Structures are given as structure tokens and as C-alpha cells.
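Person: Please comment on this record:
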Amino acid sequence: MLTVVREQLGRALFRRVAGPDGPVNRARIHDTPGPRWFAPDRPIRTVHGDASMFIGGLSALLLQSLHPLAMAAVAGHSGFRGDPWGRLQRTSTFLAVTTYGTADDAQQAVDRVRGIHDHIRGTTAEGVPYHAADPHLLTWVHIAETDSFLRAHERYGARPLDAVAYDAYVADTARVAEALGVVDPPRDRRELSERLSVYCPELRATPEARSAARYLMLQPPLPLAARPFYGGLAANAVALLPPWARTMLGLPHLPLVESLAVRPAGQMLTRTIRWAMTPPPPASPARP
């Protein structure tokens, strides 16, 4: 009975994250022979393959929304409200291909994204022009994502890495960032922190950012039965944000509640996701 529950939950989670083509894409990504951008022992494979990404991904979206130009591009062109699961599935497939896929497939995925970015341009409500292919804007999206994924793994990962390995993770992500058009991305955690500080004066919670936060926190496109589970992930995504980001977005900061309830719930949820999505070991052959 427990095995059936595990399989059903694992399939449901995988379908949400990877979409209807998930099994086919997974087989192609992992089973196609050829050189990869990242060897099997690289930290990027450890971080991106962990259940902590469920929390890190939500936290990254909240953090990224604080750049007015990035948020304007998302609000105007991504369709995250009309097709939120489609956007999640496209993003997760891109991460999987560039992290685990062949070098040729990774480059093709990057080329597709660069082609999309090249056509995303417009102006904010204040009349400020933006272009998704702008290296400065690409850098913000990259460092907000990398920082969120890293801190989520450090807090909720099955086997957190040491400082040297997390520096190597930042260096790994720089390989993908440069391919996407980021100029001189950070290559260790110190550089990552310094680069985030450089962007702080540009950040603010626009009405679009606050609306996106309310949507992600309070109005997820999920059946009622799944919302408590999602709510636990969302609460931990907020707890993962830097304090200044929470303040900008008007999100609560309750240290005692977080330490006593939110973080333990995050640990339990990520363990459950990990359990559900990890195939059980093959059964031992019956003895005669």
C-alpha cells in the first residue's frame, strides 16, 4: 500500500513539474549518449536534483520580481498567470537539459531561450524601456536564481555541501549564464553576494511585483486538497528570502514562528517530495 502511495504521489509531482512529455524528455536527457557540460560529480547536478529546488524556485521568483524591468518583462510576456504550469514545466526542462543533457542539447536549449529573449521588449508603466536580452537584466535574473537555489539546498538539501562545493556550484551556473548572454557572471559565493548588493539600489516592489507575490502565495492554481502542501512550501520560500526583500514585498517576518513551525515543515515537505520522487530499490528475488 505504501509503495502505491509513493508511486502515485511521485507521478503526480513529476507531471506537475515536467508536464505530459516529462517521461520522454527525462529519457532523452539522461539516456542520450554524448559529452555533457557538467560531469556526474559536479555540484550543479547535486543541487538541481534535490527536492529543495521546490522551495528555491518559488523563492527565486519572489526575489527576481523586485527588479522593475524583470517584473515588467514577466508580467507582459511570460503568461505566468494564464499558463503557470506550462511556464514551470518549460523552466524545469531547461534546467534539466543544461544540467544533465548532452552538450549539443544544452546548447540548443540555450539558443531557443536566447531567441525568445531577443523578441521580449517593451516599456514599464513609468515608460522605462526594457529588453530581456539586456546582459544587465540577464545578470539579475541569474544571480537571484543562483542565490535562491544555493540557499535552499544549504537549508533543505538531503546532503548540504561544504563551502568549497557551493563556490563550485556558483562557478557551474556561470557556465550556463555565459551561454545565455550574461557578461562576467560571479564564480564563487563571495562574488555572488557582492553582485546582489550592487543591484539592491535598483530594486523595489512595483504593483506588478506585489500582485505576483499575492498570486504565488495566496492564489496558486491548485485544487483545494493540495493547497496546504503548497502553503508549506510557499511559507518556506518566503523564509528563505533576504530580510530586505521580504520588507520590500510586505511579507511577514516572524522569527519564532519560522524556527518552531515553518522550517520544520519545510524539512518534512522536502523529505516527502524526495521520498516520493526517488524510485524504490528493486525487490530482491525470492528465494527458492
Observations:
- The longest strand covers residues 121-123.
- The radius of gyration is 19 Å.
- The longest helix spans residues 255-277.
